[in-house]
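<goal> How does this chain fold?
<sample>
Here is the protein in question

***
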Amino acid sequence: MDQAAAQGVEHACSFFTMTPREISCCLSAAQARFTREERSLLLLSRLMALAVHAPDKLPALPGPSLAPMTDEAIKERLLSWRRKDA
């Protein structure tokens, strides 16, 4: 239990009140979360390596965001899309 808590497993202190299925689900969820974090960190490290060693191979930055719109402009844009679909 202490080892699970040290590794960041949520609700590790309440393992004694859980059923074996709940404990298994809790550990599986923690493993999935760690796997997602590891993937994110791996992607980040690859992008950082590209930025340092081959900046010309970096992915393109996203385009500029839309200009601020009033409520009426938003409503008009949504209605124009609806008219195209109808």
